[in-house]
Design a protein that fits this description.
8 strands, alpha+beta, 39% strand, Pnp Oxidase, Chain A
Length: 150
């Protein structure tokens, strides 16, 4: 199975990611967020314009995320650990980004007030670790940008 297919499969079985940013005082902050992944391997998430992680990303775009579907047994853990950059989706890509997000979470079409007070970000990975304990404890594959297969 190609790495993109593994990443896509894990992402499709998870609804949330954990975003790690750095607060102004240098301390780490982890935030759970709903996400959708597009075909460019970008992870899209909505955030309040006033949230702490939004302010953190406005100062330092470098961050990390992890994505993992629920597993009731450690032998079934699969997940993604990633480093990269999060940026506001530019206006020319906003419609397509919201379409991808809305396909995964159709409820947003009824949440106009929340969406209008939010920012759509895209996380662009520069390093990915694919974890699959089904193959063996701590089994992983690491990919560095540029990703040849994508």
């Amino acid at each position: 199975m190609r790495e993109f297919d593994k990443i896509k499969g894990i992402s499709e079985r998870a609804n949330t990611l954990s975003l790690a940013t750095i607060d102004l005082d240098g301390s780490p902050r982890a935030t759970p967020l709903y996400f959708a992944m597009n075909q460019k391997l970008q992870f899209l998430f909505l955030s309040s314009k006033t949230s702490q992680h939004t302010m953190n990303l406005s100062r330092v775009a470098a961050c990390s995320i992890c994505v993992y579907p629920e597993a009731s047994n450690w032998k079934n853990i699969q997940g993604l650990q990633m480093k990269g950059i999060a940026e506001v989706v530019p206006s020319e890509d906003l419609r397509k980004g919201m379409q991808v997000y809305g396909e995964k979470f159709p409820i947003i079409s009824m949440l106009h007030e929340i969406v209008s007070s939010s920012i759509l970000f895209r996380f662009c990975p520069t390093w990915i670790r694919i974890i699959d304990n089904r193959i063996g404890f701590s089994h992983h594959i690491e990919l560095d940008y540029p990703f040849d297969e994508f």
